[in-house]
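Quick check before the chapter quiz. The format below is the same one you will see on the exam, so make sure you can read both the input and the output lines.
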Amino acid sequence: MTYNYKFPHPAVTTDVVIFTIDEDSLKVLLVRRGHGPFEDRWALPGGFVEIDEDLESCALRELAEETGVTGVFLEQLYTFGAPQRDPRERVITVAYYALVPIDRLHPRPASDARDVGWFCCDSLPALAFDHADIVRMAQQRLCAKLQYSTIALQFMPGRFTLGELQRVYEIILGEPLDKRNFRKRLRAYDCLVDTGQQRRNGNHRPARLYTVKEPGAVRIVR
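Here is the expected output.
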């Protein structure tokens, strides 16, 4: 059935914020736009929702088309709808975010993206549209969720030390943590499994290696 609406209606897009930890920094995945508006400017992967497509399917499709990245779990972040955010027309975007270990993804430019790369969140280039605001909100959400969930485990490889996990928390929060209190919190979360293996780093004592008890799951803890 065809509908004729009295009022004009906006276009809808999705944008995706992919975070990782690399070289002791929180980084975000960006694409260089291959066409206008903001041609050659860095931006988040994303694009227009097709008429018969749900929002998350669009986000996953655009991510795959522009970066080659697939198989990530997305969580909806926020809807951005300032009237002038896109110079082409009235566009509302639904933003998603995801966390991945750096060794899991091998992004490559595809579709209408000229290039793709990881950028430190503390030193981003000038971004297209309002994507700097989207990254900033995603970073704030990540910091907040760190306080009441096991979300940081999404950054971890298959096996890791408690020191490496603590460093992930410190990078995201931007401050050092007390080792004893941090490990007390982890015990209360009951989210790790001791593999029975150890790894030596330099001249330090061997450190126990752990794995995530529920890979892919984010538990809310109070």
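If your answer matched, good. The chain has a mean pLDDT of 93.
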